[in-house]
UniProtKB/TrEMBL annotation:
Family statement drawn from the similarity comment of this UniProt entry: Belongs to the short-chain dehydrogenases/reductases (SDR) family.
Pfam families, sorted: adh_short
UniProt superkingdom: Bacteria
Signal peptide span: none
GO molecular function: oxidoreductase activity
Sorted UniProt keywords: Oxidoreductase
Protein name as annotated: SDR family NAD(P)-dependent oxidoreductase
Lineage per the UniProt record: Bacteria, Bacillati, Actinomycetota, Actinomycetes, Kitasatosporales
InterPro entries: NAD(P)-bd_dom_sf, SDR_fam
Length: 308
């Protein structure tokens, strides 16, 4: 794994990938590199103009790339269901649950869930479940869910998943990223129990320069905070090309084990992909089972063939 880069990715010809939030940042780099190595890539994002622009950019950077746009709003379960219903391929080899929001002011999704929990966790939980038949039909398929080193700030509160009691933006973000890891843990366990060779793994980018950091302050008009985030992106953060490497490694490198957590090698902050530390609560079987049951109840999506 030492020094691993996108040049080390294997040939992905004949494979199909879905990358959520692939119109910019880490998702864009992930989609571009998967396409560069031969995969058919579905750019799944909310904005059609931005999504189609990303498809055009990838086509310009990777001549001959097989890439297409499909609309997906993870904050609207009807959109998630529509995306899955329209998915045109019988097999799905790679699902990269990359899209996310961070430290936004309090808001709710179309279905009434707190936005960060709803988009970062529930939207991807529903998407993965609805695409499960296509994943199981592809030998050695992988599901990579992008979490964050910030998950260490807070465990989930199973009795207050939507932060109804008290909303603190960074705690809500951390809980959603813990939920990503608990989801990966439980999905990996259920896949193994079902005898499937599909691998569920997680990744995080460390501190990577994307528009994720500035979206929250901009939404509230906090110009000072926005400028501070912009400064951090310029001076401290690593570029999106490096931040995407853990996701690409988890999605394509040989020997990635179920429930792996891959991140940058240097202090979880920057550098080539490496196994990353995670809090003990993200491997709690009871917590992952309870979150799974709650997620099924909230989304109405059940994973047929993957029982507890």
């Amino acid at each position: 794994m030492a020094g691993w880069s996108a040049h080390d990715m294997p040939d992905l010809s004949g494979r199909t990938a879905v990358v959520t939030g692939a119109n910019s940042g880490l998702g864009y780099v992930t989609a571009r590199e998967l396409a560069r190595h031969g995969s058919r890539v579905v750019v799944a994002c909310r904005s059609e103009p931005r999504g189609r622009a990303a498809v055009d950019r990838i086509g310009a950077e990777v001549p001959g790339a097989e890439v297409e746009f499909a609309r997906l709003d993870l904050g609207d379960l009807a959109s998630v269901r529509e995306f899955a219903a329209r998915f045109p391929y019988e097999r799905l080899d790679l699902l990269v649950n990359n899209a996310g929001v961070m430290a936004l002011p309090y808001g709710t999704t179309a279905d009434g869930f707190e936005t960060q929990f709803g988009v970062n966790h529930l939207g991807h939980f529903a998407l993965t479940g609805l695409l499960l038949p296509a994943l199981l039909a592809a030998p050695g398929a992988r599901v990579v869910t992008v979490s964050s080193m910030m998950h260490a700030l807070a465990n989930i509160d199973i009795d207050d998943l939507n932060s109804d009691r008290k909303y603190r933006r960074w705690i809500a973000y951390a809980r959603s990223k813990t939920a990503n890891l608990l989801f990966t843990h439980e999905l990996a366990r259920r896949l193994a129990a079902a005898g499937s060779d599909t691998v569920a793994a997680a990744a995080h980018p460390g501190y990577a320069a994307t528009n994720l950091q500035t979206a929250g302050p901009r939404a509230e008009g906090r110009r000072g905070a926005e400028r501070l985030m912009e400064l951090g992106n310029r001076i401290v953060a690593q570029p999106a090309e490096m931040g995407a490497l853990p996701s690409l490694y988890a999605a394509t490198a040989p020997g990635v084990r179920p429930d792996s957590f891959i991140g940058p090698s240097f202090a979880m902050w920057r550098g080539a992909p490496a196994p990353s530390r995670r809090t003990p609560w993200t491997r709690d079987d009871r917590a992952s089972e309870r979150l799974w049951a709650a997620s099924e109840a909230l989304t109405g999506v059940t994973y047929e063939g993957l029982k507890a």
